[in-house]
Write a structure and sequence with these properties.
Two copies of one chain form a homodimer. By secondary structure, chain A is an alpha/beta fold. Helix content of chain A is 42%, strand content 17%. Chain A contains 18 helices and 17 strands. The longest helix of chain A has 20 residues.
Amino acid sequence: MSKIPYRIYLTEQEMPRQWYNLRSDMPELPDPYINPGTMKPAVLEDLYPVFCEELAKQEMDNTTRYVDIPEEILEFYKIYRPSPLCRAYNLEKALDTPAKIYFKFEGNNTSGSHKLNSAVAQVYYAKKQGITSLTTETGAGQWGTALSEACSYFDMPLTVYMVKVSSQQKPYRKAIIETFGGKVIPSPSDKTEVGRSILKKNPETGGSLGCAISEAIEHAVKTENCRYVLGSVLNQVLLHQSIIGLEAKAAMDKIGEYPDIVIGCAGGGSNLGGLIAPFMQDKLTGRKNPYFIAVEPASCPSMTRGKYAYDFCDTGRVTPLAKMYTLGCEFIPSANHAGGLRYHGMSPVISKLYHDGYLDEAKAYEQTRVFDAAALFAKYETILPAPESSHAIRAAIDEALKCRLTGEEKTILFGLTGTGYFDMAAYMQYNEGMMTDYIPTDEDLKPGFDALPTL
Amino acid sequence: MSKIPYRIYLTEQEMPRQWYNLRSDMPELPDPYINPGTMKPAVLEDLYPVFCEELAKQEMDNTTRYVDIPEEILEFYKIYRPSPLCRAYNLEKALDTPAKIYFKFEGNNTSGSHKLNSAVAQVYYAKKQGITSLTTETGAGQWGTALSEACSYFDMPLTVYMVKVSSQQKPYRKAIIETFGGKVIPSPSDKTEVGRSILKKNPETGGSLGCAISEAIEHAVKTENCRYVLGSVLNQVLLHQSIIGLEAKAAMDKIGEYPDIVIGCAGGGSNLGGLIAPFMQDKLTGRKNPYFIAVEPASCPSMTRGKYAYDFCDTGRVTPLAKMYTLGCEFIPSANHAGGLRYHGMSPVISKLYHDGYLDEAKAYEQTRVFDAAALFAKYETILPAPESSHAIRAAIDEALKCRLTGEEKTILFGLTGTGYFDMAAYMQYNEGMMTDYIPTDEDLKPGFDALPTL
């Protein structure tokens, strides 16, 4: 039998032509969004001022199982997809483990991450509806980059509210967004009411994702024919990101493999939800029983220490309420936290699957342990991973080391969501031994929980 | 007939298992290296203090046509190769050209360029011989990154002399080299005699590639069991880089294509020499007659304005003399020059092919026109190209625009050597309209020519 290749690429013919809607197979659906004005379940029309119609429909559609990917999006996907399914032979050898380690690598595109998969879809539908500009927020910058690429391609003007501390720490992220024609505004800004109000309360704030979301939404609602787009958390994003899991599953099929364990890093849930989608379908329908692990930073532990409750998706409390694991919409990770995965909540779909026991495990790591894994991975697999992705690497390594102890030949699949080329400041800290950890105390978390809305 | 895919990947089975030595098919060989001590043609043993034995042999071997790629190097190649051959459908459409544009994309590895192809080979042979440390120089930083990746993989200590102005302008390049365990010393430094001497003459100098080479060689020669490695110019590097052209040709064979025009950017010649190798073989042996274009910066015009003469490969004048197109070994591009392609000379093989008319054309572009092409390419192909690679993009676009005028359906192949993620400072300049051009005057070039050694 010939050895499984290091890299498995699907052909264009083998690429998925439909997204998979995980909600269609969930025994119980996530609780509905609540309109904060009426305090009643949101209806489709409630979303139209914020999202374009097709995306609003995808957001609310819990029944359609497979959604055709429009031809124009498929054509764009073919520029940078399929992404490779990779066998980490060298890492396996270095760990001396009987486990087989696979990773789905989403970093080989200029956005540097999986975020492009949903960006192109969201811009396409907005363009088709005749929307004439878009707004969004970005934290670590991957989403802003991906969206500016897609907007450039479709000639769609874009304004990005970038968390102020990120725009200062990552001037080159800002530069790449601008190279693709996006306009970057550090958030909180004086361009919006919510920004001015937050600045008034706390003039020195470095901003947060929740705050940038509020500003971007206000901008969209107040600008004619403008809509807001979001890179994670939402049902529509998980739908688009299912391309990751569908490709991974098809590639594993080709080599006769199936994962015993599927691992994804978890911020808002976009990568995790996309990667696990078809494997979770197998579990929900009783065909297979893979073990799912979500990995988050100990400094932003929404799944491992958050409450499963209704909360706002933004700091300004203008979005619908979503039932999710949350640290409270005003939560901001401690200043020493590097990289993304800094959102206060978690995708309602992922939250529900975790709450109901289908997503088996959530675990949190301190960042120095995550960078240890990143450095080891870089040495043996010669890919410099994003800090976010490295959470999944850490967990995959730990599972592989367990296999070394038990002798089990488990098949591990993890999502390598992106590259770390714009995170070198964090790597420098790590290289110089200057990186620190901070685990929030219960005291730190209490104000966020106390401020949760009551229904 | 089905449409040619956007991306063509060879399978592992289809990947080349041999490098191709272009010298074996040249009607006339490049003039030999001259030992500056004896002023006689260098012999193999002259190279042993600097290069490990196997690489010295490859450097001097003008007859072996195909060289088996060792299994350990093939295994490394499989981590990041084959690189895709890409059809630039969107660019073609944007240019409204009947030309078919293909590019071989070498940027999808952490070094961000083709440099890794030779780095892994050079480290492997050194390790095999029992060499215990390596030195090199780096300018824009791609070579230093590639080499540090390869050294990390093979557990080989590495010292990188990095052109001082680059290490200041690109702290993140330095950081990534350090993440892979390489030690970075800004050049000129006080660590070497040649460095101290250059600093004494010009304490404020930002350094040059030629100077960094001198320091790295001195370090290697004076350190026990240490050797020097170089990322371009040399025959051995062109041999290893032939993997680019061999893969490109195999992929074009698969889809029934053959290029009418082959375009590569040219600094020291590593990418150009590798890309054109098998196509040049076709020309030298009379099988086909593709048209070859080398593209260089107007600010460092070794081929278009240099002399074809014997010169040193370094500023310190310690290397053998090579017959090549050169601006003189003390030439330094003007301070506003962004990116790489800043070496004073050109690969002796490339120089000879150009001098003898097999390499059809060399052209030079000002950098603002190059960044215009880069921005256009990024918009339509959603890859942010390296400034170096963008020289080839500029020429490919211009050839495609010619085809629009003539109606010719030419097949154009160019080398996209890498990505621009560590060149965002230059992109920022460009975005803000602050990028300038400088074409050296004849007066500027005269001192370099006057200082050429006389044989």
